[in-house]
Amino acid sequence: MISRYSRPEMVAIWSPETKFRIWFEIEAHACDALAAIGVIPKSAAETIWEKGGSATFDVARIDEIEAVTKHDVIAFLTHLAEFVGPDSRFIHQGMTSSDVLDTCFSVQLVRATDLLLADIDKLLEALKRRAFEHKDTVTIGRSHGIHAEPTTFGVKLAQAYAEFDRNKTRLLEARDEIATCAISGAVGTFANIDPRVEEHVAAAMGLKPEPVSTQVIPRDRHAMYFAILGVIASSIERLSIEVRHLQRTEVLEAEEFFSPGQKGSSAMPHKRNPVLTENLTGLARMVRSYALPAMENVALWHERDISHSSVERMIGPDATVTLDFALARMTSVIDKLLVYPENMMKNMNKFRGLVHSQRVLLALTQAGVSREDAYRLVQRNAMRVWEEGKDFLEELLADQEVRAALSEADLREKFDLGYHTKHVDTIFRRVFGEA
């Protein structure tokens, strides 16, 4: 984690203090269940909660113990015993380290996901507001970076809204899949711990029992989770690149907000660079990069090994912290985005009517001209616009082959911008509902 791209609430989920508190709760809930079925004294479970629950775990002390034991869970349990006293012998009965580590990781990922879901809700709110603001702001649509046909800037934002709405659905599914608990002991057979303990801990921690844990929770769950984070990051990049393209000097249809006192370049005082969306493009690359090691973690040896452990200690915090920051930054970009309808119209008219070529093509075919001939006639006139700066409508009106099929009134009607935006309301209803 890099503080420059981190927000405190998400960082706190991955702090050692939070981790050790979750470890304690897992162990204490397990003791409650063990006491309930008569394996340990109820008084011991109460003491563990009383003394461990009020303890402030000393991270430096745990690190000191681990330096000797070379085992993080044993180091924690040794430190916990310093608070609890003799009843600490009942802690971790029949459990293995992965029971604590994997269940904790699930809790942390669930909490992180809840923050990410809140982030997406804020981004959706901003996208919806700006989409309705520019529902009828006509702009040119582009394919291959080249002028295609008119659309509206609101439709562009509605597309982004629909994409992030799908991402929210995916993230909810990922949250459900990752929210599993394993308290099944060595190789996951429950030989030394009753399955009722797992059920109790799962319910207490807001999780569900893992059907077959084999000592570790199967990593296909985690692979899917981090893959979905990568998809969300890709959506951030897609929207960021759109803003970056629109902010180019030759285009300048929209740009990031440029705050008072902000500097664009150390050398050129005139610069207003799309630094936020460029940054988001880079952060998206990082979040996507965490998906591959998560997938490689799926293939562990037999019932378990720990080749996944070092990976997850990095990608768990890094992926969620980075995506949290990126979603918040993307929301700010959209919320403050500067939009220039006049430049949109100026760019639309730069090639003097070429954007209406398909309408003319279709009109010619409907008037009886073969598609091949119609394409040839329209392209012939379009090339004069590209190469000589001619006016497309004037060229068509002067083309006798075109006029043989279409009247002047027919041709002029094909240059109506409203034709291209007549179904915008339909698109908005599909995306946002009747409201």
From TrEMBL:
Keywords associated with the record: Lyase, Purine biosynthesis
- Which pathway is recorded for this entry? Purine metabolism; IMP biosynthesis via de novo pathway; 5-amino-1-(5-phospho-D-ribosyl)imidazole-4-carboxamide from 5-amino-1-(5-phospho-D-ribosyl)imidazole-4-carboxylate: step 2/2; Purine metabolism; AMP biosynthesis via de novo pathway; AMP from IMP: step 2/2
Cite the EC number.
Answer: 4.3.2.2
* GO CC, alphabetical: cytosol
Does the record's keyword annotation contain ATP-binding? no
Catalytic reaction equation(s): N(6)-(1,2-dicarboxyethyl)-AMP = fumarate + AMP; (2S)-2-[5-amino-1-(5-phospho-beta-D-ribosyl)imidazole-4-carboxamido]succinate = 5-amino-1-(5-phospho-beta-D-ribosyl)imidazole-4-carboxamide + fumarate
Where are the coiled-coil regions?
none
Which family is this sequence assigned to? Belongs to the lyase 1 family. Adenylosuccinate lyase subfamily.
Q: What is this protein called?
A: Adenylosuccinate lyase
Q: Which organism is it from?
A: Neorhizobium galegae bv. officinalis bv. officinalis str. HAMBI 1141
